[in-house]
tRNA pseudouridine synthase B (Roseburia yibonii), 299 residues
Amino acid sequence: MKNGIINVRKEKGFTSFDVVAKLRGILGQKKIGHTGTLDPDATGVLPVCLGKATKVCELLTDKDKEYEAVLLLGKKTDTLDISGTVLEEKDVTVTEQEVRTVMQRFVGEIEQIPPMYSALKVDGKKLCDLARAGVTVERKPRKRMIYEITIKEIALPRVSFRVSCARGTYIRTLCEDIGEALGCGGCVESLVRTRVADFTLEQSFTLSQIEQMAKDGTIDSAIRPIDSIFAQYPAVTAKPEYEKMLYNGNRMALSCFSDYRADGSAEPVRVYDWNGAFIGIYRIDDAGLTLKPVKIFME
């Protein structure tokens, strides 16, 4: 079984579930999970966790993301993107400066109402399934963070821009809200996710490339090890005489580690056995005497 994270470049027309299903067939294993839904019409970075790495799916879902989008002004659709049914069309009479001014108002903490065509669940049912059945339910606004919006090109009625944002931000909703603020409506014409945490578009692989690597026996070169996700944390190594305690998932005294440096920090640490195998993430207890496991990846 493969363990680690593979950076998939999702292509248009595939759902995130489709990508997982394809990878199960290519790699011949069931334990695979994606790290957050990407719209079928959207393309780009979709980190997929394999084997033991499925334990970090939620962690990666929570990471910051970056997108490149084309906003089409003057058109409002039911899905908030160009593939939906057109609900309203208006002439676009705004100026470039008005577009720039309005878009910058969306930088910082904003409120978004989740779109009906989304994977968000209400009372156990996905909003997109309800929408397809013609049902609309009330959604409460949610606070979201936009770190930066960079306009790449304005060729009205189209605006190409890059956005850096926190988890849970709907770019389709952002485009609709910008269109509403400009008084002409708007929807997403194209959307590419260019980054999730430190997984970038340039380092991603299409499903066909992954399939070829699997046939060639070079697939391991495309799989990032689990501990790379936690590279920001210091690493410590358990002394060989304490490895039984380590493998049992016990709390361990600081003296059980050959290279632990007590500096009063509560920062998590990466724990390895004496042979360099990654065991998991540990954190010092409140008394500052032992390291306790937070998430174990050893089986």
About this structure: The two ends are 12 Å apart (CA to CA). Residues 16-27 form the longest helix (12 residues). The chain has a mean pLDDT of 90. Residues 4-62+199-228 form a domain with the Pseudouridine synthase fold (CATH 3.30.2350.10).
